[in-house]
Amino acid sequence: MNTLKIKTHRMSEEYQNRNHFFVLSKGNNAGKPMENPCPNCFVVIANNVQEREYFYWLCYGLWVGGFFRPFLSGSVISFLRIAELREVIYQVHSKVNVRKEALMSSIEILNKLSAHQDNLIKQIQLIKHAKKALMYKMLK
Q: What is the rounded CA–CA span in Å between residue 94 and residue 115?
């Protein structure tokens, strides 16, 4: 656990392995884990893919549960400090580590649900495209 690295992402930096993910640092969605970087995010670098999945879904659960909201600062644009992100992740990890098997099975289910959600989003995009094509054909 001590080898987990959390640092500020720089857009010019690229990461060679797939053992990392990004966490949004600014706005109302601060704390949201992401696959792709954006200008206002932190990068979380794990040792291996399993650890990456574990911490990705841990951060996702923290974000959905609103655990980062008490730590947001700023009067106009909310932001999450890197030290507070580390603190929340480490505290929850120590609590959840006792029930690691249950969390790992939940992570598998979340991965399947996420893949199903992506499939549904693609289907909705295709339906929208078909509607546009139909209307274009009718009104042409």
A: 28
